[in-house]
Write a structure and sequence with these properties.
The structure holds 2 protein chains of 2 kinds. Chain A is of the alpha+beta class. Chain A has 10 helices and 20 strands. In chain A, the strands form 4 sheets. In chain A, strands 6-7-8-4-9-10 form a 6-stranded mixed beta sheet, sandwiched between helices. In chain A, strands 13, 15, 16, 17, 19 and 20 form a 6-stranded mixed beta sheet that branches. In chain A, strands 1, 2, 3 and 5 form a 4-stranded antiparallel beta sheet that branches. Chain B has 13 helices and 2 strands. The radius of gyration of chain B is 21 Å and the shape is globular. Chain B is 67% helix and 4% strand. By secondary structure, chain B is mainly alpha-helical. Chain B has a two-stranded antiparallel ribbon with strand order 1-2. Chain B starts with a strand and ends with a helix. In chain B, a hairpin with a 2-residue loop joins β1 and β2. In chain B, α3 packs across α4, α3 crosses α7 and α4 runs antiparallel to α11. The chains are: A alpha+beta, B mainly alpha. At the A-B interface, β5 and α3 of A face β2, α2, α6 and α13 of B. β5 of chain A pairs antiparallel with β2 of chain B, so a sheet runs across the interface.
């Protein structure tokens, strides 16, 4: 049960979950019986479309495709990934709502899962009745609920309305009450799926603090899925990134967020675009980006008034004229700062080419930046024709530049990531 | 999904495979408070926003019995072996309502709870069990009414119940409850895929009632194929046994009672098997 002296809370090995596509079962018993009888006799399925090996409804989709993961007790694990990456499926498996198609899961401890707020809440019943109902559904006994009733009501901030049917509640009150029940469960493991998306800021903060305490002080394990990176940052001490049913990253929270936001997160003076993770997409373009090399830095850290000297290698299958490049710069919070265009076009010969450029970092405030690299040409009709792009092509960091004229600390959340020229006082 | 405690820590092991007979009754017992709450909810929600409220618990079966008395007693003139019609029909509808509730309520287990089942795990069997419990409570309420009429007719000397057999009534309830749950969970498991069954069940249960000696006593059917069919019907014997106890009139044949138990056990085993199969993945098909 323990590995490296740490107690395991959850262990997944080789977990897969397959879903059937199309209309399940075809809807009729007769059709299913026909197909089944045909399979038994080894004959062709009469419900097959001509030229198709299997019925359309037989096609499958792997929502999780081989997950190996060990979560230790007291960890607050964040799970991030794009829609359809398999986050919710994973939580469903862990909360036993559905079973895996393959693989094994071991859970040490009781699980309180909140895949939705207020599961089992009934509008006709009062807040208090719903606390009992919801608590019982989540696995508490009546005695346990009685003992915690005061705490739950206190935490929920809806004391005046506790004996009113919940159908008269505002959505915020509803969520507060529901969260309070789940937060007071005596479970060793808490599973949450984006439940903090509703409720006011103050309550969100209270919830995060409560969960943080659950992990730190009470040694409970918290699994948290969210698209809100700030809550992930505040709550989690470890984070995994899911993509197409697989774990593509497991470790530091900031790095995971960087990866999720579509960045490699790694600042490097040499980017190899032919490495396997990038090649698939890169190879589909009309030109192939091969590498990007920075010539004037060892660590990709710059002051805001410097320039990055770089060499980009491109391979073209045929000669191309008037190729242009575009640099779309994103700040570390994922928001686009601005875009820089190459001042004049260049020509590409068939085969390998290298170009040397200077990228200007003036105006950027301190922080990390990710630059998407896009190559395009203007065709004979004057329209832009996309050749290829690397998302992102490179990353750099601007280190604090003490500005004598401005003694304030820059606030990127309000002011953005570009420091415009000062406005001039004329008179 | 097997669970056991290691060093006081609750251990759950989840794989894709599961033994067909695994029921986890212990877990159901741990969730007994939930069963009570589900049962309470059934009653507290059913008559919300009605004027007569809980009075419907009495009115409903009473009106049904009155209709049966008029239609089958006075118009069709079915002989009830000298038992007053209204008492005969009150008794019959009480026991039948228990059985049919057990089926129809359980037949919707998965489909009507899909949104809750899809979000949180608790032993799914708690729902069928609480359904049986609600049906049993409803039965007890109806029996109060039966008791009032019975007392009146006993005093008038028109009915002589077999008092010692009253002890068997709980057994009859368990028998019918298990059977109803068995059929109910089979239907509910199949309706996750084939919705047709859910529609059929109301009609089927009604038809079944006419194939069971509810609106007529078993003694009214002449010998022949029809009688054999009614006797094989697993509900017949428990119903007759029940009426034998309460009304003192009924045809109970031990061999058919045993047959009924065998069918019940087979149905419930098959039900558990299919319920187990469906329980863990029904969210993907419902």
């Amino acid at each position: 049960m323990s590995e490296n002296n740490r107690e395991i809370a959850i262990k997944l090995s080789g977990v897969k979950k397959m879903y059937k596509l199309g209309q399940i079962g075809g809807g009729t018993l007769q059709g299913d019986l026909q197909s089944w009888w045909a399979r038994v006799r080894g004959k062709e399925d009469p419900n097959t479309m001509i030229g198709q090996k299997q019925r359309l409804v037989g096609q499958t989709f792997m929502a999780l495709n081989g997950i190996d993961l060990t979560i230790y007790q007291g960890e607050a694990l964040g799970i991030i990934g794009a829609n359809g990456a398999g986050k919710s499926t994973m939580l469903k498996l862990l909360s036993k709502v559905t079973a895996p198609s393959d693989g094994e899961i071991d859970i040490y401890g009781r699980v309180a899962s909140m895949l939705e707020v207020g599961t089992g809440f009934n509008g006709e019943m009062t807040g208090r009745e719903n606390i009992y109902m919801n608590g019982a559904i989540l696995g508490m006994t009546k005695a346990e609920i009685d003992a915690k009733m005061e705490d739950i009501i206190e935490f929920s901030e809806v004391r005046e309305f506790i004996d009113t049917p919940v159908k008269r509640y505002s959505s915020g009150m509803y969520v507060k009450l529901a969260f309070s029940v789940a937060a007071h469960l005596d479970s060793e493991i808490m599973i949450m799926d984006e439940v903090l998306a509703v409720g006011d800021m103050a309550f969100q903060k209270k919830c995060l603090t409560k969960m943080r305490e659950a992990a730190n002080k009470e040694g409970r394990t918290v699994l948290y899925v969210s698209h809100n990176m700030n809550t992930i940052r505040q709550l989690c001490d470890r984070c995994i990134v899911l993509d197409k049913g697989k774990i593509i990253f497991d470790g530091d929270v900031e790095e995971a967020i960087d990866i999720y936001l579509g960045t490699t997160g790694v600042m490097s003076t040499y980017y190899d675009f032919l490495q396997p993770t990038q090649l698939n997409r890169n190879a589909k373009g009309k030109v192939l980006f091969k590498y990007l090399k920075t010539l004037n830095s060892a660590d990709m850290k710059f002051y805001s008034d410097s320039r990055i000297e770089m060499e980009i290698a491109l391979a073209a299958p045929k000669p191309l004229e008037k190729v242009k490049l575009r640099f779309e710069v994103r700040y570390q919070n994922g928001i686009t700062s601005g875009t820089s265009f190459l001042d004049k076009p260049f020509n590409l010969l068939e085969g390998d080419n290298t170009v040397t450029l200077h990228f200007d970092t003036t105006h950027f405030v301190a922080g990390k930046y990710y630059v998407d690299l896009v190559a395009y040409i203007y065709n004979q009709f004057g329209n832009e024709e996309y050749l290829n792009g690397i998302y992102p092509g490179f990353a750099f960091e601007i280190i604090e530049d003490i500005n004598e004229n401005n003694e304030l600390v820059w606030l990127p959340q309000y002011w953005g990531s570009v420091h415009l020229h000062d406005t001039v006082l004329v008179k | 999904m097997s669970e056991r405690r290691i060093e006081n820590i609750h251990h759950t092991h989840i794989t894709s495979k599961r033994k067909w007979y695994e029921l986890n009754l212990k877990e159901v017992w741990q969730y007994r408070d939930l069963i009570v709450l589900f049962t309470k909810r059934t009653f507290s929600l059913r008559y919300k926003q009605t004027i007569l409220g809980p009075a419907w618990l009495f009115l409903n079966p009473f009106l049904t019995s009155v209709v049966y008395t008029v239609v089958f007693g006075n118009i069709a003139k079915i002989d009830t072996n000298g038992i007053p019609h209204i008492l005969f029909y009150l008794t019959s509808t009480a026991i039948w309502a228990f059985f049919s509730e057990s089926i129809t309520r359980n037949a919707q287990t998965f489909t009507s709870n899909a949104n809750v089942f899809g979000k949180v795990y608790f032993p799914r069997l708690t729902v069928p069990v609480s359904n049986i419990l609600s049906a049993a409570i409803q039965f007890c309420i109806q029996m109060i009414m039966v008791g009032i009429f019975l007392a009146y007719y006993v005093m008038k000397g028109m009915v002589s119940p077999n008092w010692p057999y009253f002890l068997l009534i709980p057994v009859v309830l368990i028998h019918l409850g298990i059977m109803g749950m068995g059929f109910g969970i089979i239907i509910s498991s199949l309706t996750t895929k084939y919705r047709d069954l859910g529609i059929l069940v109301t009609f089927g249960v009604q038809l079944w009632m006419y194939g069971t000696p509810i609106v007529y006593p078993l003694s009214e059917i002449g010998d022949g194929l029809l009688k054999t069919a009614v006797m094989i019907n697993p509900v017949t014997m428990p119903v007759e046994l029940f009426r034998y106890a309460v009304l003192g009139q009924g045809t109970v044949l031990p061999e058919y009672l045993v047959l009924s138990w065998i069918i019940t056990i087979l149905v419930v085993l098959f039900g558990i098997m299919i319920f187990n199969r469906v329980e863990k993945t029904f969210m993907d098909t419902v």
